[in-house]
UniProtKB/TrEMBL annotation:
Transmembrane segments: none annotated. GO terms for cellular component: cytosol. HAMAP family: UPF0250. Belongs to the UPF0250 family. This is Uncharacterized protein.
Amino acid sequence: MNEDTLLEFPCQFPIKVMGNNSANFENEIVMIVRRHIPQLGEAAVKSRPSKTGKYLSVTITFSAQSKAQIDEIYRAVHAHPEVRMML
């Protein structure tokens, strides 16, 4: 553990991405994450539409190796034009 984070690596780390519920949103987000984690499996991805169906929440849980890796993934995913919020 270092001073920049309370996490101990490697660890299971979930990111939640909310965006427009377009036909390709989930697939595009997963492809972005796979650039950083090629071995990401289908079971790591959970999706849920909003009540109105306008938005889609995609949660991806992966084995994070470092804070830098998490930061890189957040930056890459956040750059997607349909992303509205990330947790």
